[in-house]
């Protein structure tokens, strides 16, 4: 994403103009734009004109519209990636779509004030965002993150089992499952012999190879690693097969890419959610330490481990985490970006304050992207969790809170009595 | 005229030289024919002439009778009630006239010698012929893995043989004097536990193989070893009888103290896991030498004979009791394998979790909208007209496209469908885990041969293990050893896009025990086992 213009005063009021370039930028915009913001972007609108004689003239006009946002929708279709990834060497496939609906708030000659419109945000067209209640620190840091140049798909991963494979592209903020294959493989059986099994396996490998060529942008310089992950030994066989095929077809680029970036990693199940294990593995985490998704994976892992070793230092759930924050106990805050997308501005403000509070006290706040597996898992876990610096017993804390409440109540009553 | 007659005899070999002339369309012959008809001699010759014409025509492919390949679905031979009666009669006769049928899963830590033991056992019982044995021996010697020669009779695929490790369930059958046993040889490696679960869910009894060699038994039993996990798994899948074969005793010089040590170690663990002591048997063996598998005779068994004169492994297997079969339940067959049939059509195998299925019946495939007809039923390599609950069957299906059949699907009658579930509640027991289960924990759900990603969406309550009473509502986490009621939701397959989880066929435990058992795993570790309480859809 490119930052075209930015004007934000010290109170947070102002606007930012951005130019999205790829899928991930759409995801950033989705996280930036909230209900109530005003967004200005180019749009195509069908304009009807009724002449004095009563004939209706309909025209499509390209114009800039400014909307007061009522809803934002994001969708990414992995199927659409099929054609684009092979054609586009940069590895950016425009399969994500962002739609912003709202009422027009700036009148122009063609569109009346208050008319509804839905903007389809397009790549390489400027979008101006103005926040209704100011730019908070989370939103501004999101803009900062989004405009860092030179991103793209960073890891291509093939998660396979016997007969199944999922092709994933991991970038800073997104995991895209671009393709899945599943080839039925008969089990070895005494009656049928093992030939059916072997035949099906060969078919699986060749299907996988074809899909690999199409879905993994192995020639891309930005791609840091190509991961083959599976339980058992499927990854070895798959890697070998792809390598052999590349040799047979004399595909020098693929051969080099495999040699330089190929990695075989053991996971415990052939499902996509095992990607978390891939990111935890020492091979990957040492190489990709700096990337956001590796950090997220490590933070979540740390939380789980803390839950196992010292339950009193691992809290989750919005209420509990807020209580821990009140006591200044949070060492690392794990929070999902989904919480910031809350349609209710107060909820967002609450979480923004929470993150700012933790950061002020020297704590660490990791904002998870819910387009990653780790983010999905955090979402399941209520979207917010914290590793505390010192153990706190939830029940004790809750009892304290209750007492405090009762004390306040009593004081109020006393006050009322005194007044009365 | 004489010339004419010779000519005819050359044309038609069927006519002898002395016989009357045959009509061959030659002029002048007709008159003779007429007289011949009257005399009644030419009838066979006429027949031949017609055949000849048909023959010529058929070579031109002009005949209409081209056989349309239309697979006939055999008619069901019994009415439902009669079939049940028949099945009941046969099952009651089991043990009197017929051998009782049990299925046995072979479990244990990797390299405990499960496949070798079973390979040897098959040989001793005459199921493995000398020729195959020699071929295996030669093959394994050539590959430099002579110690795997017995295992090769079960480990059939190239990769298994290359690595010297079982990767998938091998299905075999053998027969002892009083039992007909289906053997499911499970892989011991922890990466293949999904396959092991698929096998164990088809079994009534278990044969636990442990390695007696110094350090090996301990390695298998410690944390991360499969002995412990397998025992818990099979118990949670409803297996209640176990025979423990203490293997490789030859490597510890047939030390009785080592054998006793292992037995004393395992006994309390098995009781704790839920196996009744009376249904737990121990037997010392050496699989490679074939000691105490079927007989205790022979030179190799000399040392063992000095302190052991109990039953052999085969004797114990001969005493296994098949559990009660519910033949009145609706048919449920979770598919554990799909392959091409030997002739035509598609074959599926699995175990009947209830009911009776017969040739000619129509079965619905769930999930999905397709039905298939049963063309043939095979039990233990023999074609049978029907099969009842508890049997491991191979069904040959027809009038179905094989793409609709996948491992993990469930066959059931079209009139009595298995409910499909994406959200359900379950009562679980949490195993020995390090990281506690939180609400929202992502897990893999195992049900028969299917495993799907799922989430623990709600921790409803923790329960008292003994009484089942609620001890705490809405617990924050579930730690090891607790019993709890939880809600499980299947996860969607993709991270983005439409969030629709594919439902799986599942039944509550109260309706069908076999269809209501689930296992939960996470990160290559079994974290819990349980039963389905209620399905929300």
TrEMBL record, chain A:
Subcellular locations according to the entry: Cytoplasm
The ranges of region (Disordered) come to 400-420
For this protein, the record's Pfam families field holds: eRF1_2 (PF03464), eRF1_3 (PF03465), Pelota_N (PF26356)
| Chief site of localization | cytoplasm
- Asked if the record carries the keyword Metal-binding, the reply is yes
Q: Tell me the superkingdom of the source.
A: Eukaryota
Cofactor section: a divalent metal cation
Under Gene3D superfamilies, the record lists: 3.30.1330.30, eRF1 domain 2 (3.30.420.60), Pelota, domain A (2.30.30.870)
Boundaries of each eRF1/Pelota-like N-terminal domain copy? 1-148
Its function, per the record, reads: Component of the Dom34-Hbs1 complex, a complex that recognizes stalled ribosomes and triggers the No-Go Decay (NGD) pathway. In the Dom34-Hbs1 complex, dom34 recognizes ribosomes stalled at the 3' end of an mRNA and engages stalled ribosomes by destabilizing mRNA in the mRNA channel. Following ribosome-binding, the Dom34-Hbs1 complex promotes the disassembly of stalled ribosomes, followed by degradation of damaged mRNAs as part of the NGD pathway.
Similarity comment: Belongs to the eukaryotic release factor 1 family. Pelota subfamily.
User: Know the name of this protein?
Assistant: Protein DOM34 homolog
Organism of origin is Lentinula boryana
TrEMBL record, chain B:
Superkingdom is: Eukaryota
UniProtKB keywords:
GTP-binding, Nucleotide-binding
Q: Does the keyword Plastid apply?
A: no
Give every Tr-type G domain span: 99-325
Checking InterPro entries in the record gives: GTP-eEF1A_C (IPR054696), P-loop_NTPase (IPR027417), T_Tr_GTP-bd_dom (IPR000795), TRAFAC_GTPase_members (IPR050100), Transl_B-barrel_sf (IPR009000), Transl_elong_EF1A/Init_IF2_C (IPR009001)
User: Would I find ATP-binding among this entry's keywords?
Assistant: no
Identify the Gene3D superfamilies for this entry: P-loop containing nucleotide triphosphate hydrolases, Translation factors
Q: Which family, according to the similarity comment?
A: Belongs to the TRAFAC class translation factor GTPase superfamily. Classic translation factor GTPase family. EF-Tu/EF-1A subfamily.
Q: What is this protein called?
A: EF Tu GTP binding domain-containing protein
Provide the species name: Lentinula boryana
């Amino acid at each position: 994403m490119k930052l075209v213009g930015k004007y934000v005063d010290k109170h947070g009021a102002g606007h930012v103009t951005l130019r999205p370039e790829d899928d991930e930028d759409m995801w950033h915009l989705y996280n930036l734009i909230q209900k109530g913001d005003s967004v200005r972007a180019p749009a195509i609108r069908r304009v009807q004109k009724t002449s004095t004689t009563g004939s209706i003239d309909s025209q499509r006009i390209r114009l800039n519209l400014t909307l007061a946002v009522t809803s934002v929708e994001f969708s990414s279709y992995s199927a659409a990636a099929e054609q684009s990834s092979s054609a586009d060497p940069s590895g950016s496939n425009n399969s994500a779509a962002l739609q912003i609906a709202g009422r027009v708030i700036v009148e122009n000659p063609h569109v009346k004030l208050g008319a509804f419109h839905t903007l389809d945000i397009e790549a390489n067209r400027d979008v101006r965002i103005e926040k209704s209640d100011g730019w908070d620190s989370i939103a501004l840091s999101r803009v900062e993150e989004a405009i860092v140049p030179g991103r793209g798909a960073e890891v291509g991963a093939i998660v396979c089992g016997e007969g199944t494979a999922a092709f994933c592209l991991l970038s800073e903020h997104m995991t895209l499952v671009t393709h899945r294959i599943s080839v039925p493989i008969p089990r070895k059986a005494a009656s049928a012999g093992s030939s059916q099994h072997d035949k099906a396996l060969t078919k699986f490998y060749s299907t996988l190879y074809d899909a690999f060529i199409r879905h993994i942008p192995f020639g891309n310089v930005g791609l840091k690693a190509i991961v083959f992950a599976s339980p058992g030994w499927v990854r070895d066989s798959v890697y070998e097969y792809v390598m052999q095929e590349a040799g047979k077809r004399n595909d020098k680029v693929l051969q080099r890419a495999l040699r330089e970036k190929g990695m075989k990693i053991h996971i415990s199940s052939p499902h996509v959610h095992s990607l978390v294990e891939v990111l935890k593995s020492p091979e990957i985490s040492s190489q990709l330490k700096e990337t956001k998704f590796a950090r997220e994976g490590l933070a979540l892992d740390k939380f789980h481990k803390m839950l196992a070793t010292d339950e009193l230092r691992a809290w989750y759930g919005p209420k509990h985490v807020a209580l821990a924050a009140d006591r200044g106990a949070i060492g690392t805050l794990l929070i999902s970006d989904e919480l910031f997308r809350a349609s209710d501005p107060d909820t967002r403000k609450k979480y923004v304050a929470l993150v700012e509070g933790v950061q002020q006290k020297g704590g660490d706040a990791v904002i998870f992207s819910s387009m990653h597996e780790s983010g999905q898992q955090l979402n399941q876990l209520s979207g917010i969790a914290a590793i505390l610096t010192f153990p706190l017993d939830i029940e004790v804390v809750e009892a304290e809170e209750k007492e405090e409440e009762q004390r306040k109540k009593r004081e109020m009553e006393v006050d009322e009595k005194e007044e009365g | 005229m004489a010339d004419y007659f010779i000519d005819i005899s050359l044309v038609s070999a069927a006519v002898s030289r002395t016989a009357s002339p045959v009509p061959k369309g030659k002029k002048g012959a007709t008159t003779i024919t007429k007289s011949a008809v009257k005399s009644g001699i030419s009838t066979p010759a006429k027949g031949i002439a017609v055949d000849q014409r048909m023959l010529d025509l058929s070579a031109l492919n002009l005949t209409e009778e081209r056989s349309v390949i239309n697979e006939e679905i055999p008619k069901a031979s019994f009415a439902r009630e009669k079939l049940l009666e028949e099945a009941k009669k046969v099952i009651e006769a089991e043990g009197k006239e017929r051998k009782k049928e049990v299925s046995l899963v072979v479990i244990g830590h990797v390299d405990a010698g499960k496949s070798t033991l079973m390979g040897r056992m098959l040989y001793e019982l005459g199921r493995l012929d000398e020729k195959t044995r020699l071929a295996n021996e030669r093959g394994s010697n050539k590959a430099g893995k002579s110690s795997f020669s017995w295992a090769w009779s079960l480990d059939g695929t190239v990769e298994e043989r290359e690595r010297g490790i079982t990767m998938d369930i091998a299905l075999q059958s053998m027969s002892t004097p009083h039992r007909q046993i289906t053997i499911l040889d499970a892989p011991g490696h922890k990466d293949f536990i999904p396959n092991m679960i698929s096998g164990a869910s088809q079994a009534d009894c278990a044969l636990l193989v442990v390695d007696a060699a110094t350090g090996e038994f301990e390695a298998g039993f410690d944390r991360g070893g499969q002995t412990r996990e397998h025992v818990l798994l099979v118990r949670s899948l409803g297996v209640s009888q176990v025979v423990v074969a203490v293997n490789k005793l030859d490597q510890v010089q047939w030390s009785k103290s080592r054998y006793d040590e292992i037995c004393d170690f395992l006994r309390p663990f098995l009781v704790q896991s839920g196996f009744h002591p009376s249904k737990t048997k121990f037997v010392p063996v050496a699989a490679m030498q074939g000691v105490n598998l079927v007989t205790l005779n022979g030179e190799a068994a000399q040392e063992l004979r000095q302190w052991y004169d109990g039953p052999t492994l085969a004797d114990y297997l001969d005493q296994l009791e098949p559990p009660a079969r519910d033949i009145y339940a609706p048919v449920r067959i979770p598919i554990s394998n799909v392959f091409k049939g030997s002739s035509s059509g598609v074959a599926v195998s699995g175990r009947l979790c209830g009911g009776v299925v017969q040739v000619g019946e129509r079965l619905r495939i769930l999930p999905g909208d397709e039905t298939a007809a049963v063309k043939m039923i095979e039990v233990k390599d023999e074609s049978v007209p029907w099969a009842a609950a508890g049997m491991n069957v191979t069904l040959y299906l027809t009038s179905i496209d094989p793409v609709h059949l996948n491992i993990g699907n469930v066959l059931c009658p079209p009139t009595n469908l298995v409910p499909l579930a994406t959200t359900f509640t379950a009562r679980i027991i949490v195993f020995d885990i390090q990281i506690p289960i939180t609400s929202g924990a992502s897990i893999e759900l195992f049900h028969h041969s299917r495993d799907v990603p799922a989430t623990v969406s709600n921790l409803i309550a923790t329960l008292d293990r003994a009484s089942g009473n609620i001890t705490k509502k809405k617990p924050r986490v579930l730690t090891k050893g607790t019993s709890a009621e939880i809600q499980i939701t299947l996860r969607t397959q993709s991270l983005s896009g439409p969030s629709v989880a594919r439902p799986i066929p599942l039944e509550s435990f109260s309706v069908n025990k076999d269809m209501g058992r689930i296992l939960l795993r996470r990160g290559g570790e079994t974290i819990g086992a349980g039963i389905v309480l209620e399905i929300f859809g």
